[in-house]
Write a structure and sequence with these properties.
Chain lengths: 345, 345
DNA sequence: ATATATTCGGTAAACGTTTTCCATGGAATA
DNA sequence: TATTCCATGGAAAACGTTTACCGAATATAT
């Protein structure tokens, strides 16, 4: 028992052709009612499972999407992922998540799922498509369905062979401007900033917004108050130490992600610095721990649920050649003011 | 230009047989040096990409593993994932992560990647294999390579057709006993507990350990101090409120996961209850935020890195029919004592 | 020198599907 | 009754690989 059970065996067992089996299962009204029922019953009873490899090979469709995430354990990404999966499932697609850990090599390995025809499209969260340069250049490279998110060059959009890649993002410049303005409104004139990798679009954009807000308020921006981190708790801690060492301390710190803000606040408190009375702290992302930190964290809420959903929908529309309204989706963010920047009266 | 480019076209272009192309690329010493080099050069130049669908169909190997995670955004799971991916990559496998959101239906959908031959094995974090009951029963069902983790019935282990499923886990009973003992040592006699879904192995085991520790200390365990949560921050908050309403308040709360502990502490503080002076709080998992909460959280550290790694290694050993030393891996945990249970003197 | 082993490349059969094309028979139409 | 049409099911080609098998050529041993 328990031998191979393919469409062939099923057909033999029913004494019909494999064509009929295939039709009864996947093209039911191409076949008589009687046949349909007999086959489906037998399939269920014997536990026939379609070999989707063979099926995909034949049809050139997989109903799989690969999503390449720089860090699955990042609390912000994690939020996006859920709704992405959800939306895809509703349309009959499965999402395969790949954790690239920010490494190009890994991105490319997951990108190969596309080239190897194991997935119909790809969503990527880094600023470059998950294919080697040489591949992108190659004449024989046809641009697969893809959607870029989170790390997006809004202005230009990423282009391959003149084709610009659809994206889903928020307006980082505006968001950053808003939160900086909020700090300025609170009376801060000397604002330090803890960044992530400065070569990434998100950091560039957030920095730009931060600087613009200061200029508009007539505050001179000092690059000596820019501290380069990497979006982790630890870098928040470490750089907070550096900031505390400054002769002329800032009165506020804008961290470009919540995790850094949490690390930062922790170090400040450890050193007896009160937040927000002595130094105010703002974050970015509104991860779910932001409202449970002490003090609760002022931050920019990204519409995580919507980001994920729109990524999936956009990509699937492209895969299925639906007419696409917007290839460039910019979603609204929201400034959330909490205790870490609001001096209690 | 940019037409189909398969092995066939490549062979044509070089005026050799497709067999030679295949060999030159994947079985290099089955072919002369000259041939090898010519083919590889051409492949690179023209940008040939193997259709892995076809390859897998032929060889019945995919070098893919699917890992089904109940919630990718859970901070604890997230830690495991990374090392899992890492270890797999070292052995030449890619891991496809599926987020089941705890839904059976979704688990099964990802399980189908196995049955559809798109993956060679599966790692699952829930207590039941990702296949429908009827499938498991079916005569024609052959048990695929799988490894169970995190939600494991240690005693029996899960069995399919007499075959017991390999697992990787910690000893939840012991861990829970230890942390409860710690609370008892701190002088607590009335300890509330905030659980997760009580039907899961982890909760059952942690509850068992919790009760045993009390019995050993001669404390009577009161089921009225058991509060059923769901491993989220929110349930921690909510149940903390319930606990505060008790006429006879406990002096300590053991939360079966850190996220709940964080929610719990937040509510306590909101209500002017000092942690740990008025009520001590302990968690479980040692997520990375545990040491940044205020107060920092006493908890059980699970060896996340090792859990992930061992899952991958064990599964791949099974896939590749390596001789397997241990089919049941129980890893060491560690009690981490922090401020939330240590009364400052 | 011959006999034997080894290396190398091609032919064609598989892997498990889906789908085009065709043949058949019965129902519908004229 | 003769003709057309449609519903149904089978045969076989195709999807893009890998690999068993063969035969030719070359190297090695006697």
């Amino acid at each position: 028992m328990s031998n191979k059970l393919g469409i062939k065996e099923l057909a033999q067992h029913l004494d019909i052709s494999i064509a009929s089996v295939s039709r009864a299962l996947h093209n039911p009204n191409r076949v008589s009612k009687d046949m349909r029922e007999r086959v489906q019953a037998a399939a269920k009873e014997l536990g026939y499972k379609q070999n989707t490899l063979a099926s995909s090979l034949r049809t050139a469709k997989t109903r799989n999407i690969v999503a390449i995430i720089p860090d699955l354990s990042d609390t912000f990404n994690a939020g996006v992922i859920r709704s992405m999966e959800d939306a895809a499932a509703k349309r009959g697609y499965s999402i395969l998540f790949g954790d690239s850990q920010g490494e190009r090599e890994r991105e490319i390995r997951y990108g190969e799922l596309i080239q190897g025809k194991r997935a119909d499209g790809v969503i990527f969260f880094s600023s470059t498509p998950p294919f080697p340069e040489e591949t992108l250049q190659s004449d024989n490279f046809t641009v697969p369905p893809m959607v870029n998110s989170c790390e997006v060059m809004i202005d230009s959009g990423y282009k391959i062979k003149g084709q610009s890649i659809p994206y889903v993002t928020i307006n980082n410049i505006e968001a950053s401007k808003e939160i900086t303005e909020h700090l300025i409104q609170q009376g801060h004139k000397r604002i330090a900033v803890i960044t992530g990798d400065p070569s990434t679009p998100s950091v560039k954009q957030r920095l730009q917004g931060h600087i613009e807000a200061q200029q508009m308020a007539g505050i001179e921006h000092s690059s000596s108050l820019v501290f380069e981190g990497d979006y982790t708790i630890e870098s928040g801690q470490k750089l907070a130490h550096d900031i505390l060492k400054l002769k002329h301390r800032p009165t506020a710190i804008f961290c470009m992600c919540d995790e850094s803000a949490i690390g930062c606040m922790h170090t400040l408190k450890e050193n007896g610095v009160r937040v927000p009375q002595d130094i105010a702290v703002a974050g970015f992302d509104d991860i779910r721990f932001a409202q449970f930190s002490t003090p609760t964290l002022t931050t920019i809420a990204q519409p995580v649920e919507e980001i994920g959903r729109r990524c999936s929908e956009l990509l699937i529309d492209i895969i299925e050649n639906k007419s696409i309204k917007e290839k460039r989706v910019v979603l609204p963010h929201k400034l959330v003011i909490r205790e870490s920047t609001r001096i209690p009266n």
